[in-house]
Input
Amino acid sequence: MSRKEQLGQVLRFALVGGVNTGTFFVIYLLLHPWMPYFAAYALAFVLAMVGSFFMNTYFTYRTRPTWKKFFLFPLTNITNFVIQSVGLYALVTWAGMDTRIAPLVAAVVAIPFTFLLSRKILVPGAARAEQAPPVAAGPAAGSSAGPASGPAAGSSAGSPTDSSSRV
Output
C-alpha cells in the first residue's frame, strides 16, 4: 500500500471516527437523563460500535462486511472500551470532570489503538502484505496468477472469493 493510500485510509478513519463519536455522544446524552451515566455510556458505546463496523468496512477500509468480521470487530473495541472506561472513571471520580464531557476526552485517548486494531480485523493480511518483501511475478515465482493474488496481497479480505458469509 502506497503512502498516499495509507494517508487516505487514515483520513477516512478520522472522518468515520468523528461521525461515530458524534453518534455515540448524541446517544449518550439522550440516555444519560434516564439511567446512570455508566449504563448510558455502555449502551451508547455498543450501538455506536455497530455503526462503526459498517462505516469502517465500506468507507475506511473498502472491504465487504462478513459475519466473521462482524463478530470479530468487537474484539478490536475491547481495548478501546477498557481505555475509555478507565479514562471515564478516572476523569469523573478523580479529576471531577463533568459526566457529559468526560466520555469525549476518554475517546480521544483511545483513537490510535482503535485504528490499528480495527485495521487488523477488517483487512486481514494488510500488515503482512506491507511487511513482506516484493514477490516476483510470473511462473518463476511459482504462481501464474502474478503478485496481486493470494492472502499476502489482501485479495481475500472481503473479495468476491471470500468464503465467509456476508452481513
